[in-house]
């Protein structure tokens, strides 16, 4: 065979069958392109299904009531749908979580990127990722069975289900997200900037605080905002540990007492889903209205993060 | 910072005003470094507490007349309850999710990175994927409730294991796409150019040369994504999987199995946690032990694969 090919006289006998390879190329292009469009279809599907049912919901409940009522009692005989009740609880647990996750996560990121020896770093990073891989239902168990009794022993008036325990453990749950993304941003600041700072006579901490962190600011803020989006959308921890108790909005701010049981947007959705709400019932529509509110909040956070990254990105050549 | 300011203000004529104050600055450094180390240690300490608490509570129940916990169905009596149907349900979900998500996710990643890089469509999809990554998983549950459970009921059979697999596949699709793109991006361009130079099509280069090199990276990302899917609870509850299931989906005909209702380890765990009796909570801890064993095996495989490829690249 190879002898034949070697002579130029027989070269014409070589007929490449390009048809099949061109055809397969086109097939792959169309098929994989369709797969890529699936992600757009997912977004479209999310928006369509949320809006579709939410419109149905707002036919039954006036929009102003939804926004401004001070009580959330959808399962009562005379229901009220004040979403602020759920939003305030959601933001409270998320704020507690961020109070844990941002300082600890950022400092852990600084340690991993700036102080840890390469060998230690190789061990610590996978351990943090392991922490990130723990399912939220496990965190919920930990909050309810382990953290809450400790809090009850330390602080008077802590209920069995409370926002504080859920928020603290949620902070631990989102800590790896914040730490890992911040670490990427800090690690990406070029070494020459640190060396420049040292040459000016700064210590390590001064170089980190005045040169490295400002250089990584956009990435750090993006990681914190993503952490917040995670906290707002986190479901199982708040459902298990914070209970199902919507607190009416009152001027005495009792609804913001973290020792008490609250109901977040996500735990309301779980509560209704558990009860097997029939399609077309008002409960069924309500979870979509709440879901849409949740989606809009996380979308806004995402847009802020996107804007911030683009506005403050330091690019290094 | 203040020291640097002072340097700026001091003129060469008055060098005595410059005080380096090194002792104090080094002390501040020491405190800062200790605080940073402490943050890492706190995170690890909590991890150890969490795992320790779960294992101390759950392990005795797990090995109590050993295989019976694995081989019995959930029951109203805590001592006789087991995790057979949740465990089998989780395996079903794992297989179905992988079946749906891996081909589509890897395909989409290949399309975006190799066929349509730097087009407007690719950028739009990239932004969109960034958005999807921040969407809470319970929202995917609502989408699935509407689409897979309601509209596609004739196919999926409603609240079935098929609907659950599709839901989780949608959830991890963005993760797999991103992992695939990153793995493909790390393949040197010279390999593609060499392929084109001998007259192959783009797909042939990708199939025969780029993909084999990128495969370990893709596998790592995929396994991590699947392990995330296995731990998800909220979207499955939303599509209505929180029920008492004391049977297994039949394997033949397979379509019956796909369309049968199911439960999974995290759901059963949640079910047991939400009961007040401590015996059930011990069961929850034991179920978590099983869940963590599955996840640990998957994560360890992923990390092993990644470390192995990094070594190859360094050599």
TrEMBL record, chain A:
**In this protein, which residues make up the domain named ABC transmembrane type-1?**
87-305
**Pfam families listed in its UniProt record:** BPD_transp_1 (PF00528)
Q: Which GO terms describe its cellular component?
A: plasma membrane
Q: How does it sit in the membrane?
A: Multi-pass membrane protein
* Molecular-function GO term, any one: phosphate transmembrane transporter activity
Keyword set, alphabetical order: Cell membrane, Membrane, Phosphate transport, Transmembrane, Transmembrane helix, Transport
Entry's InterPro entries? MetI-like (IPR000515), MetI-like_sf (IPR035906), Phosphate_PstC (IPR011864)
Task: Please list every transmembrane segment annotated in the UniProt record, as residue ranges.
Answer: 27-52, 81-109, 130-151, 163-189, 210-229, 287-309
Where would you find this protein in the cell? Cell membrane; Membrane
Q: What is its main location?
A: membrane
| Record's keyword annotation contains Protein transport | no
Q: Which organism is it from?
A: Pegethrix bostrychoides GSE-TBD4-15B
Its GO biological process terms? phosphate ion transport
Role noted for this protein: Part of the binding-protein-dependent transport system for phosphate; probably responsible for the translocation of the substrate across the membrane.
Question: What is the protein's given name?
Answer: Phosphate transport system permease protein
Family statement: Belongs to the binding-protein-dependent transport system permease family. CysTW subfamily.
TrEMBL record, chain B:
Q: Name one GO biological process term.
A: phosphate ion transmembrane transport
Which key words tag this protein in UniProt?
A: Cell membrane, Membrane, Transmembrane, Transmembrane helix, Transport
Give the primary localization class: membrane
The transmembrane segments are 35-63, 83-112, 124-149, 161-180, 236-255, 284-305
Q: Can you tell which superkingdom this protein's organism belongs to?
A: Bacteria
Under Pfam families, the record lists:
BPD_transp_1, DUF3333
What cellular component terms from Gene Ontology apply here? plasma membrane
Record GO terms (molecular function): phosphate transmembrane transporter activity
List where in the cell it is found. Cell membrane
Sorted alphabetically, which NCBIfam families does this protein's record hold? 3a0107s02c
Family indicated by similarity: Belongs to the binding-protein-dependent transport system permease family. CysTW subfamily.
Name of the protein described by the UniProt record: Phosphate transport system permease protein PstA
Q: Which organism is it from?
A: Pegethrix bostrychoides GSE-TBD4-15B
Q: Taxonomic lineage of this organism?
A: Bacteria, Bacillati, Cyanobacteriota, Cyanophyceae, Oculatellales
